[in-house]
Amino acid sequence: MLENGYVTLPRLFFRNWEWSDDANTVAVFVRLLIEADIVPNSWHGIPVPRGGMVSSYTRLAEKTGLSVKKVRTAIKHLEAAGCVISLCAGQLKPEKS
What we know:
Order of helices and strands: HHEEHH
Shape: globular
Number of strands: 2
Number of helices: 4
Strand content: 5-15%
Strand order of the largest sheet: 1-2
Distance between the termini: 24 Å
Helix content: 40-55%
């Protein structure tokens, strides 16, 4: 992850977004935006595309100060809204050598 840079959020996005009034969902969404890879990367031989990241409910809970249950609920909201796609480690395929 680059240490410098900006994330731009248009005001209209939050005015028209169904979860903008849910503080937990907004907190998780912003954390995901800030930590997403801006260049392709890999994790344990598994490719992580630009805009992706590897994390866990526990790690996101620690970084946002929310409980794991609240993070899980926020991720469900974000998935339902089409803002994120969540994959389990078993669904990822390592790069072939």
